[in-house]
Amino acid sequence: MRALEVVRPGPLALVQDLGRPGYAHLGVPPSGALDVPALRLANRLVGNDEDAAGVECLFGGLELRATTSCTIAVTGPAVEVEVDGRAVGSHAPVWLAAGQALAIGAPATGLRCYLAVSGGIAIDAELGSRSRDVLSGIGPAPLKTGDVLPLGTPSPLGGADVVLPTVAPASLVVPIDPGPRAHWFEDLAAGLAKTWRVTAESNRVGLRLDGPALTREGEHAGRELPSEGLLTGAVQVPPNGLPVVFLADHPTTGGYPVAAVVRRASLPALAQARPGTLLRFHSSTRVWNR
After folding, report:
1. Which of 10, 126, 168, 222 could form a disulfide with 272 if both were Cys (CB 3.0 to 4.6 A apart)?
2. Better pLDDT: 1 or 238
3. Which residues on neighbouring strands pair with residue 8, listed in sequence order?
């Protein structure tokens, strides 16, 4: 059997592919890798299709043992990768012999690393995806010591060679567009353009921010809102005025006003934003109050 055995899972290691979009009408979020380009790249390095399932590991610490020869690659932020205690580096394909152990360290910047292995992780899919959804509990449970991850059949074509890692910055400028409830807030564009700090309460459901609270317009102060549909990247503002940016495991509906929406191209950067990262929102449009 081609497989990887979990020796040590680290803080949180989840099987993820590109998710299960199209089920919002059933209350199921899209889920999938938060840093989609990183998972796609890891799969290309080992010769997989880009949507093959890999492992998303939070702040490293993952150790696996191969039961068969295979090729692996680790992407995301630059991180130390070792095979049987020998440094091999990230962002390059690495061959493992049967019995060899792979260990991923903690990245110096960023938050989430992605491990791909030739053939992909071939666990059973749920609703067309092998991704773990931490909000609903759909998909395989977080990895734990002793788990065995079956692998699919590797491609005979091989993968890419070496790519350069990205560096997760200590501060971000995030492009946004007005949300459906932008007019509920006083001088919203200026408020969102102030400096926010990512908090430790952030997770795959949403990025929670701390900073100068946003204020509702008088007629909307204290107003209740029926649940509305939510998109990945929606910037929802609860009564405390502190925004939450919804990520891949977000609920499909919500009852707080959505003030803005993060453009999809910026979502991978948010996936790598550690607690303490500084963030400002920026919009190129002046259509904020209607």
Report:
1. 168
2. 238
3. 63
Asked whether the whole model's pTM tops 0.70, one would answer yes
Written in H, E and C, the secondary structure of the chain is CCEEEEEECCCEEEEECCCCCCCHHHCCCCCCCCCHHHHHHHHHHHCCCCCCCEEEEECCCCEEEECCCEEEEEECECCCEEECCEECCCCCCEEECCCCEEEECCCCCCCEEEEEECCCECCCCECCECCCCCCCCCCCCCCCCCCEEEECCCCCCCCCCCCCCECCCCEEEEEEEECCCHHHECCHHHHHCCCEEECCCCCCCEEEEECCCCCECHHHCCCCCCCEECCCCEEECCCCCCCEEECCCCCCEECCCEEEEECHHHHHHHHCCCCCCEEEEECCCCCCCC
Six-digit token string for 141: 């449970």
Average per-residue pLDDT for the chain:
92
Q: How far apart are CA 271 and CA 209, in angstroms?
A: 14
Cβ neighbour number for residue 40 with a 10 Å cutoff = 21
The pLDDT, as a whole number, for residue 286 is 62
Tokens 């997760």 sit on residue: 168
Tokens encoding 140 = 């395989």
| 32-64: pLDDT as tens digits | 999 999 999 999 999 999 999 999 999 999 999
User: Using CB atoms within 10 A of its CB, is residue 103 exposed (0-12), middle (13-18) or buried (19+)?
Assistant: buried
Polymer length in residues for the chain: 290
Angstrom distance (rounded) from CA 20 to CA 31: 6
